[in-house]
Amino acid sequence: MRQFKIAMAFVGIIIGAGFASGQEMLQYFTSFGIWGIVGTIASIFIFGFFGFVIVDMGHFFKAYSHRDVLKHVVSPITSRVIDIFLLLTLFGIGVVMVAGAGSNLNQQFGWPVWLGNLICVTLVFLVGMMDTEKVVNAIGAIAPFLIILVIIISFRSLSTADWDIVAMNADALELSSPLPNWWISVLNYASVNLTTGVATAFLLGGVEKDKKVARHGGLIGGTVVGFLIVLINLTLFATSTQVASFDLPMLQMARLIQPWVGFIMSILIFFEIWNTAMSVLYSFSTSFITPNKKKFRYVLLVTTVAAFTLSFGGFTNVIGFVYPAVGYGGFIILGIFVYTWYKFCIRQKSYQKNVSVKPTEE
């Protein structure tokens, strides 16, 4: 059961505004046609591997923040550089999520974008006042329901599509992408999502006492993410002419099936967007002060207000700019973490006995 909670929390971290809505898939995979499908299959193995590694590292170092890992594995200068990059990433993706929340409710209900943004940051602040374990549980609570609905929508759309592969491929290649080719797109996509989720994934492992539970939870979560990428991209590949012009193509796909399906999908997408906003903005705040401190509420409040203020740049435009930049920077960081995992978690099992790892407090 604990493995399932960790797995769903990991999925909840990754499935945010661009993922759940289909906008990321459209730009990163669908736009490369058949080669984009090949890329999604590779993503199953990439996300499964890193889910295992990152959560295992969090368990090994009993981490509450990425700083609890960095201070033991790299030099102070390198740690500071990575720390700044991760903090900017967490906050930047948080802004994207808040913007996605407004776009979602605007597309489905016609509400003002600012209202959806405000509802999202308010929920982040209120849930962030809970203890850490409850926050982790909240992050993973919605994921199973969205997974089920995505599967239903995808199979319904795929079963009714006119499978003219040549025409579908031509239509997909008409879409624009911020990346130069499919294989760089695959690596960049994995990098941006894993870099975004690494701080909270460390926390998932850090609060779990059983190593096997932590490892298997991360592996299952990463693998589920990979299969969802394949499924959503196949669906968008088959229906791109109908949904590509919308900010949230998966929501439009649900609305084409039945209006009530679109209604349910919009609610679930909103909460998955909130999930990722919750994880990144909460992790950003815990990097400055531990959640059990009274002043934490003020740090979280300033963070959410700042994210709300900067969230009006346009959802699609923000994804096209922020995500590739984060992805390129994340290559180096993820490489360091893999080396660190092999060095400390695999080769030096006795290391943990000789080091006292305490949550970061500043």
What does the model show?
The structure is a single chain. The protein is globular. The chain is built from 16 helices and no strands. Helix 7 packs antiparallel against helix 15 (296-309). The chain has a single domain (2-353), classed as Hydantoin permease. It is an all-alpha fold and 362 residues long. The longest helix has 34 residues, at 76-109. 80% of the residues lie in helices and 0% in strands.
Question: Layout of helices and strands, plus pairs?
Answer:
Layout: H1 2-14, H2 17-21, H3 23-28, H4 33-60, H5 67-73, H6 76-109, H7 113-128, H8 132-141, H9 143-160, H10 165-173, H11 182-206, H12 211-243, H13 249-257, H14 259-286, H15 296-309, H16 315-347
What's the helix-strand series? Answer: HHHHHHHHHHHHHHHH
Range of helix content: over 70%
Class of secondary structure makeup: mainly alpha
CATH class: Mainly Alpha
Q: Give the overall silhouette.
A: globular
Beta percentage is under 5%
Per CATH, the architecture is Orthogonal Bundle
Low-confidence residue ranges: none
Give the domain tally: 1
Assembly state (oligomeric) = single chain
Radius of gyration: 19 Å
Average pLDDT: 85
Distance between the termini: 34 Å
DSSP strand count = 0
CATH superfamily placement: Hydantoin permease
If helices are DSSP runs of H or I spanning 4 or more residues, what is the number of helices? Answer: 16
CATH topology: Hydantoin permease
**Main beta sheet strand tally, sense and closure:** none
